[in-house]
Amino acid sequence: MDFSSSSSWAAISLVVLAVFATVAAVLLLRQRERIVRQAAELASDVEALNDRLWTLADSEEHYRSLIEAQGDLIVRRDGARIVYANGAYAALLGLDETQIVGSLAQPRLVASRPAQALEGGARVFDECLATPEGERWISWVETVVPVALGQSVLQRVGRDITARIAAEQELVEARARAESANEAKSRFLATVSHEFRTPLNGILGMADLLGDTGLDAEQTTYVRALRTSGEALLGLVDDILDFSKVEAGKLELASEPFDLGVLVETVSELMAPRAQVKGIELAAHLAPDLPTHLVGDRDRIRQILLNLVGNAIKFTDRGGVGIRISRDDRMVVIDVADTGPGIPEERRQAIFEEFEQADVSPARRHEGTGLGLAIVRRLTALMGGSVGVEGREGGGSLFRVRLPLEASEATETAALPDWRGKRVLVVSGAPFGAGFLREIIRAAGGDALVASDAEEARALLRDPASCDAALIDQEIGRTEAIALAAEARRAGVADCLIMLSPLERRQFGSPREAGFTGFLVKPVRARSLYQRLSPRPVLSAVAAEPAASPPPPSRPRLSVLVAEDNEINALLATRTLERFGCAAVWAPDGSRALAAIEAGFAGDGPCFDLVLLDIRMPGMDGLAVARAVRSREKEGPGRAPLPLVAVSANVSDGDRAAALAAGMDDCLAKPLERAALQRWLDRVAASHPLSRSA
Ligand code: ADP
């Protein structure tokens, strides 16, 4: 039994061992399988990793080659130290890419332009850098680029713009060259036309003097022709001079108060003889709501008007020319209308260009430079205004200038008379004047009945509602006008005025004897009409019709020194002075003029009452003489200052200022205008000891 039990234990032990061994073997097998599997997975991971690494290397190479290929300069810096730079940037410094990273290398800055900030914090700027290949302009875009946790570097990407800058520079230089050539041209024109003026003024002045020497009829005709041609030439020279001044930007605009009515009258007076010669009407009208005084450059506005009115008269053979000035908001509107041939629509733009004429056919009828309207356009633009032309209903042209002119403080508000219920008959066939009269009458609340001839007027007079006044234009014929006045009187018209041009006024005789209550000089001004047809004066300052110029007052014989280097001008000035009853002494240069004045001061020569000093004389000029005279006067106390008047061929604002600064009393233009000279002589005579004692 013992034996059997011990053998059973052994058997059991063996079985247990076998089971353990089997389990261990199974576990080992599983373990191996897992290890084999993991090894396989690891191998595949390594392979994928290798693939990624290769792709990455490939992509970096790809981007690097792209960056290198595009030619832009790229640099990244951490502070001043370069952390990355491409080949193009390295080349800019003449270095190799491998040398540059980690260095503090910087190209030398030659010039730079101000930076511009872009959205997102970037900056754009241009720099000129010294490189081994010479100076290069680079346009940079600078940005801050984050690189690692909280860290960033400054990145600049630059493009070489040297060629563009060179082209810009060339353009600037070319423009400067063109401008200076243009300026030289304008200067040349100004000088040449200025030089033309001097002999021309001599010719004109001599023609004047010659005309006064008792010529026969034939000689008078020749002298008149000489004068007309000379004036035409002077007009052209003036045009060129003005144009060159505007071109060269030399024109200084004045800004002073002026009387608009006086301005329009001056233009009408100057232009009226031309219109009379052609037998056409010249009418002017100022809208009653216009300020009487404006602020601006009176002379330039007059020049605009003279150009437009001059053209209108030149191109109009029948009918007339009307100047109308009105107000549109803050703009003063100057209309110059005519009944001439008009301007084809397709030429209306071009005629404002220099040297352009509406009719460019070789057989064109009108002479001229084609500069007048170009000057008008430039002047109006300079004043901030505009000019244009349109066709008129019924034919002719209408030039319209709009200027931003403010009313001056000196402006008078003209109280209009109350003509409500007043009926005024206007008998006139004048294309513009009749319409303007109607406007004047209506502005006062009156009723205007316009008849273009005597027949129409008679029909209106037969109307039982009789008129209070009649204005009859002598242009309908003297006999007809007188007959009509008689009929008007019979029809109960109380006031009957005849309208006459200044020339007709001289020939008409007494209006009262002809059956009129009075006369009006054409162009009829609103003020005059209101005054004539109102029971009492209605305006604060009513100007009377211009009276015939009074005979020259008898005055003491004045002694005048003329300092003038040009012999002809001197002859002209001295002769004119002699005509005015003065004793004229000529000094051909500044130093001789000063010597003559000093001799007078010392009692060794004539004491002058007035000195005319040419500004430009060789050697001692007029300004130097004036300064010397004023300083001598200070040395001799109690001496009354000698009236010194500068004379210049071209009075610019600069000339005038220089003359006044040198101590002169005035500056007059050459050729000496008789009226201006006379004003000075009157002034000097008024303070003359002989006048005072008289
Ligand atoms: P100019 O009169 O010296 O030729 P402008 O510049 O004054 O030069 O005028 C240019 C052109 O415009 C004239 O030649 C003419 O053909 C045309 N023109 C100007 N004003 C008038 C007008 N009132 N009626 C018809 N044509 C005109």
Q: Percentage of helical residues?
A: 40-55%
User: How many helices in DSSP terms?
Assistant: 19
Shape: elongated
CATH topology of the largest domain: Heat Shock Protein 90
Question: If classified by CATH, what would the architecture of the largest domain be?
Answer: 2-Layer Sandwich
Largest sheet, described in full?
Answer: 7 strands, antiparallel
Which regions contain 5 or more consecutive residues with pLDDT less than 50? Answer: 536-553
Distance, first to last CA: 192 Å
CATH superfamily of the largest domain: Histidine kinase-like ATPase, C-terminal domain
What small molecules does the structure contain?
A: adenosine-5'-diphosphate
Notes on the structure:
- The strands form 5 sheets. Strands 1, 2, 3, 4, 5, 6 and 7 form a 7-stranded antiparallel β-sheet that branches.
- It contains 19 helices and 25 strands.
- It folds into 5 domains: 10-70; 71-160, Beta-Lactamase (2-Layer Sandwich); 253-359 and 366-393, Heat Shock Protein 90 (2-Layer Sandwich), CATH 3.30.565; 423-532, Rossmann fold, CATH 3.40.50.2300; 559-693, 3-Layer(aba) Sandwich (Rossmann fold).
- α4 runs antiparallel to α5, α6 packs parallel to α7 (298-315) and α15 (590-602) packs parallel to α16.
- It has 694 residues and is of the alpha/beta class.
- A hairpin with a 2-residue loop joins β11 (320-328) and β12 (331-338).
- The chain starts with a helix and ends with a helix.
- The structure holds adenosine-5'-diphosphate.
- Adenosine-5'-diphosphate binds at residues 311-312, 315, 338, 340-341, 343, 351, 357-359, 366, 368-374, 397.
